[in-house]
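Support request from a user on the community tier.

User writes: "When I paste my structure tokens into the form, the page sometimes reloads and wipes my input. The last time it worked, I copied everything first. Here is what I submitted, just in case something in the input itself triggers the reload:"
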């Protein structure tokens, strides 16, 4: 018999993150989207919840209790508050988790302790490239071994916080396989380009990054000679995006449900009209179904099983269903849903972008 109830620690974490999302993120996210900047105190408070250190081994300063399911639960609650702020707070995961999953012993000992400090490290990752059909397993950026170092060439987009990053994990094609390289800021040939202008997540600054014969030591190749298991890393990223999508969907559904109960038209709440009631019921079903798909893939990861098929199916399903639910939330508000004063239009814009966000979230 399956039991989907959260254990005591998971429930405490979910409650803590939800309270933070409600009291901090929800009060700032609309202005942050308009201004293109998340308040520093919100980021600091979110980092201090300590989600990342909780999953890192004790020998590196963490608590050694990693669980993809638990992290997915927290990711949903964060994203319920605001997707862009979530990506900002959990930005260090973009480097910490790949190092934890695929790094050599030396790389883990060198880099992981920085993610257990009180101060948030200034790191990011560069995976996405401009392409009509971007394939993270067939990158245009290249890594060529040249003696005891690698030469990196290519162009990246959607790189969060690149302007202030002190370390960038760059994914590149080495002999037909996606590998990752730890590139210090200021490396010769590394160019941080223009800030991105997107349909959504404008509170999160993202940048173009160009690599022109950037030379890094062979010791900076993640995983050493063996390299990385990119499929495993991509699966973790897609579970993170899936959990974030559930948070977005739930935010839209709950807002639409509460609005429909309060909005009176022709003498009764609009929630009592059959068309609205049926749509809200479909939204509730979609949210629960999406969450179970995320939890299934995360649970398989925790069991050490290959969750690639489940993660891929979940990702492509949520890319569509999250937009559907966000659009239905907007429809529930009628003409008000199209007004920027209400949050549903932002949730729809953010949901539409999930298709393109491989590599900017990680748990």
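"...and here is what came back when it finally went through:"
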């Amino acid at each position: 018999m399956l039991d989907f109830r959260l254990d005591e620690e998971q429930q405490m974490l979910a409650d803590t993150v939800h309270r933070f999302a409600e009291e901090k993120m929800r009060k700032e996210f609309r202005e942050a989207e308009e201004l293109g900047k998340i308040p520093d105190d919100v980021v600091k408070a979110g980092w201090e919840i300590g989600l990342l250190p909780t999953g890192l081994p004790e020998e590196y300063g963490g608590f050694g209790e990693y669980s993809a399911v638990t992290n997915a639960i927290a990711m949903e609650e964060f994203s319920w508050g605001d997707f862009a702020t979530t990506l900002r707070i959990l930005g260090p995961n973009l480097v910490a988790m790949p190092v934890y999953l695929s790094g050599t012993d030396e790389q883990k000992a060198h880099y992981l302790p920085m993610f257990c400090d009180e101060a948030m490290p200034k790191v990011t990752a560069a995976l996405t490239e401009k392409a009509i059909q971007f394939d993270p397993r067939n990158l245009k950026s290249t890594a060529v071994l040249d003696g005891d170092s690698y030469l990196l060439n290519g162009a990246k987009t959607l790189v969060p916080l690149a302007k202030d990053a002190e370390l960038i994990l760059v994914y590149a094609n080495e002999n037909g396989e996606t590998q990752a390289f730890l590139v210090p800021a200021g490396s010769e040939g590394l160019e941080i380009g223009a800030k991105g202008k997107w349909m959504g997540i404008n509170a999160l600054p993202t940048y173009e990054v160009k690599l022109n014969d950037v030379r890094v030591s062979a010791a900076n190749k993640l995983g050493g000679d063996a390299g990385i298991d990119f499929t495993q890393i991509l699966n973790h990223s897609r579970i993170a995006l899936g959990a974030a999508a559930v948070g977005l969907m739930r935010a839209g559904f709950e807002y639409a449900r509460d609005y429909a109960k309060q909005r009176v038209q022709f003498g009764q709440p609009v929630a009592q009209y059959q068309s609205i009631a049926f749509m809200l019921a479909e939204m509730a079903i979609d949210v629960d179904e999406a969450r179970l798909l995320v939890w299934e893939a995360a649970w398989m990861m925790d069991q050490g099983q290959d969750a690639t098929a489940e993660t891929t199916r979940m990702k492509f399903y949520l890319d569509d269903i999250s937009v559907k639910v966000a659009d239905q939330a907007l429809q529930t508000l009628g003409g008000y849903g199209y007004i920027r004063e209400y949050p549903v239009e932002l949730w729809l814009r953010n949901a539409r972008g999930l298709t393109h966000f491989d590599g900017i979230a990680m748990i």
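Agent notes: The reload is a front-end session timeout and is unrelated to the input. DSSP finds eleven helices and nine strands in the chain. The mean pLDDT is 95. Escalated to web team.
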